[in-house]
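User: Can you recover a sequence for this backbone? Please restate the input before giving your answer.

Assistant: Of course. Working from this structure:
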């Protein structure tokens, strides 16, 4: 097997984009994004998408290629990403993938698991509960039905919470029990590189990033999206909190503090998810890039 996918994972704000560009330039290759929030062209500041300069530094795929009004999920991403990799590997022995969305990373590297069919009435019932009682009610239901999924998935995303619950209810089995099937056969070998830091440092970097986003105009970006706040793509950290401010429910200082708090929680879930893969090579975020490159080349050569 001569083709390698270098997958860069880790918590938000740890420096994955910077490393991915350095690796793409070193290996003279291209980058696939597996960050489910950066797919949407209307969401730029709040998703910490690569800047124009970063996009010019190396060819990127799956950045701002969809609209928040499009129907798009991990299954569609798996198909499109695999098709893209097939083309990229015709010209490159190595391709870089980067992103903090664990399910989307796994969809490419391992393939999606097989789940039981779900009665549409169950989904309708859960959506009705979401509308009547709010997301917290569904989160509590998931926590009781499947604590493992609750601890690792993006529970701030109502679509994913409902998906897990409908599987639990339909099968009588925790959703997490279906995440144990054998990996699909891939025509490439994956080298997984993880970036991490002491938790206090991760949290400091997250809070600094939120401050930079606000200074860059995040509030203005969110305000333009307020009429579409009901869309699933916008049920995410950095947007839903500012929607509450814009609708007069919170003051701005509290909304920003909630963004920081929810981002810290998200980072904790990311680490829990990525740490499941024992094959990942972990590096401190301050590790010199040449050391990471040496480690990758020792795996390839």
């Amino acid at each position: 097997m001569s083709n390698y996918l270098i997958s860069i994972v880790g918590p938000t704000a740890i420096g994955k984009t910077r490393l991915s560009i350095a690796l793409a330039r070193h290996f003279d290759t291209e980058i696939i994004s597996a960050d489910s929030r950066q797919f949407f062209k209307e969401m730029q500041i709040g998703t910490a998408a690569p800047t124009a300069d970063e996009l010019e530094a190396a060819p990127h795929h799956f950045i701002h290629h969809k609209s928040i009004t499009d129907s798009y999920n991990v299954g569609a991403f798996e198909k499109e990403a695999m098709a893209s990799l097939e083309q990229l590997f015709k010209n490159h022995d190595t391709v870089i993938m980067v992103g903090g969305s664990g399910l989307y990373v796994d969809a490419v590297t391992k393939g999606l698991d097989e789940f039981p069919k779900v009665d549409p009435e169950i989904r309708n019932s859960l959506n009705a509960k979401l509308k009547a009682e709010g997301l917290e009610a569904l989160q509590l239901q998931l926590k009781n039905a499947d604590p493992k999924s609750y601890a690792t998935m993006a529970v701030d995303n109502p679509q994913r919470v409902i998906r897990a619950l409908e599987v639990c209810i339909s099968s009588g089995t925790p959703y997490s029990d279906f995440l144990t099937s054998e990996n699909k056969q891939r025509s490439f070998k994956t080298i997984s590189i993880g970036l991490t830091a002491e938790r206090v440092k991760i949290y400091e970097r997250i809070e600094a990033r939120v401050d930079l986003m606000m200074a860059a105009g995040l509030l203005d970006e969110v305000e333009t999206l307020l009429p579409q706040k009901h869309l699933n793509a916008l049920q995410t950290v950095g947007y839903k909190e500012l929607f509450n401010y814009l609708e007069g429910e919170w003051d701005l200082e509290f909304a920003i503090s909630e963004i920081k708090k929810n981002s810290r929680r998200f980072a904790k879930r990311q680490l829990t998810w990525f740490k499941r893969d024992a094959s990942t090579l972990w590096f401190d975020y301050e590790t010199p890039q040449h050391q990471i490159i040496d480690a990758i080349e020792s795996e390839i050569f």
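That completes the design. The chain has two domains: 4-113+181-300, 120-178.
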